[in-house]
Amino acid sequence: MSTDIDIRQALRVFQIIAEKGEQRGNRHYFKGIYATSGFDGYDIELTDEKVTLSIYFHSRFDLDYKNQLDKDAFLEKIGKIDAMRKTRDKS
After folding, report:
1. Which of the chain's ends, N or C, has fewer CB atoms near its CB within 10 Å?
2. How far is residue 85's CA from residue 56's CA, in Å, rounded to a whole number?
3. Measured between alpha carbons, how far is 53 from 1 in angstroms, rounded to an integer?
4. pLDDT-flagged residues of the chain (< 70)
C-alpha cells in the first residue's frame, strides 16, 4: 500500500470518468483510465491495465503496480484528468 495517493483527487477523477467516459462493458474509459464501481457503490477501482487503485469504504485503498515508472505514469494520468475539472470550474 502506498501513502502518496490523494483519495479526494481519485474520487473526483472517478466521477469525471463516469460522466465523460465511454462505456466499455461494466467499466467507463476516459483518457487512458478505466473506472468501475462495486454493486453497492462503496468500492471503486481506477486502472490503466498496469496499475490498479482500489478505494474502499472509509477511504482505505490498495495501489497495485509492478514498477515505479508504471505508478508514476498512472498518477500523471490521474492528475491530468483532475486538472480538466479545475479548467472547467474556471469557465
Report:
1. C
2. 23
3. 10
4. 1-3, 86-91
Distance CA 33, CA 78 (A): 8
Measured CA to CA, the distance from residue 50 to residue 63 in angstroms comes to 11
C-beta of residue 50 within 8 angstroms of C-beta of residue 56: no
Task: Name the residue type at position 63.
Answer: L
Q: How far apart are CA 72 and CA 88, in angstroms?
A: 25
Beta strand spans in 1-91 (E): 22-24, 27-30, 33-37, 44-47, 52-55, 61-64
Question: CA-to-CA distance for 6 and 16, rounded, in angstroms?
Answer: 16
Residues in the chain, overall count: 91
User: What integer pLDDT is reported at residue 42 of this predicted model?
Assistant: 87
Three cell numbers, residue 72 = 508514476
